[in-house]
């Protein structure tokens, strides 16, 4: 049985379009899942509640972008979530790095850490914000601290 080249080309185009549409749909649904999660929402609320961070970004308006799915920093399992959310304002942008734990009793997420890392290198700890922006702090060292008190919003 012979199949013409035009039929093979049509099949190839159809398969490519169908695969691309499926991948695009999966990407969109994953981003919606992250954006709708409690650990994501808590981190963004903490950023919006910090006037120093909002002023540093030049917000409002605050633009919260999709997370990078290939970034190894982003890890989520049943009990812990660690995400890096790209954010921008009028002045500058940066990453909102958040770490959350799920309380096994209440099944609610508690924000353990929230740090805003600006493009210029400044770092603002959102759970204990300074009166002015932080200069000269090693962002990775600040984020890795685990002595900050856990906070939750209901």
Task: Outline the structure in words.
The protein is α+β, with helices and mostly antiparallel strands and 154 residues long. It has two domains: 1-36; 38-144, Roll (Nuclear Transport Factor 2, Chain: A). The protein has four helices and six strands. Strands 1, 2, 3, 4, 5 and 6 form a six-stranded antiparallel sheet that branches. Strand 2 and strand 3 form a beta hairpin. It starts with a helix and ends in a 10-residue tail after the last helix. The model is unreliable at 133-154 (pLDDT under 50). The chain crosses the membrane at residues 12-30.
How are the elements arranged and paired?
Layout: H1 5-36, H2 38-48, H3 51-57, E1 63-64, E2 75-76, E3 80-88, E4 93-102, E5 109-118, E6 123-125, H4 139-144
Antiparallel strand pairs: 1-3, 2-3, 3-4, 4-5, 5-6
Chain oligomer state: single chain
SSE order, one letter for each helix or strand: HHHEEEEEEH
Morphology = elongated
CATH-derived topology of the largest domain: Nuclear Transport Factor 2, Chain: A
**What percentage of amino acids are in beta strands?**
15-25%
Q: Biggest sheet, open or closed, and with what strands and sense?
A: 6 strands, antiparallel
Query: How many individual domains?
Result: 2
Give unreliable regions as ranges: 133-154
**Discrete helix count:** 4
Spatial separation of the terminal alpha carbons: 66 Å
The count of DSSP E runs of length 2 or more, i.e. the number of strands, is 6
CATH architecture assignment name of the largest domain: Roll
At the first level of CATH, the class of the largest domain is: Alpha Beta
Compute the gyration radius: what is it?
Answer: 20 Å
Residues in helix, %: 25-40%
Find the structural class using helix and strand composition: alpha+beta
The whole-number mean of residue pLDDT values reads: 82
């Amino acid at each position: 049985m012979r199949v013409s080249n035009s039929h093979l080309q049509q099949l190839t185009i159809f398969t490519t379009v169908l695969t691309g549409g499926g991948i695009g749909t999966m990407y969109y649904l994953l981003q919606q899942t992250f954006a709708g999660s409690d650990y994501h929402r808590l981190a963004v609320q903490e950023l919006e509640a910090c006037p120093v961070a909002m002023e540093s970004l030049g917000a409002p308006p605050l633009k919260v972008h999709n997370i990078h799915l290939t970034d190894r920093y982003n890890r989520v399992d049943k009990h812990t979530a660690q995400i890096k959310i790209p954010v921008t304002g009028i002045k500058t942008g940066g990453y909102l790095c958040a770490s959350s734990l799920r309380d096994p009793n209440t099944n609610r997420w508690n924000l353990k850490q929230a740090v805003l890392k600006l493009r210029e290198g400044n770092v603002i700890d959102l759970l204990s914000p300074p009166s002015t922006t932080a200069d000269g702090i090693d962002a990775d060292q600040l984020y890795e601290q685990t002595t900050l008190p856990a906070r939750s919003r209901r």
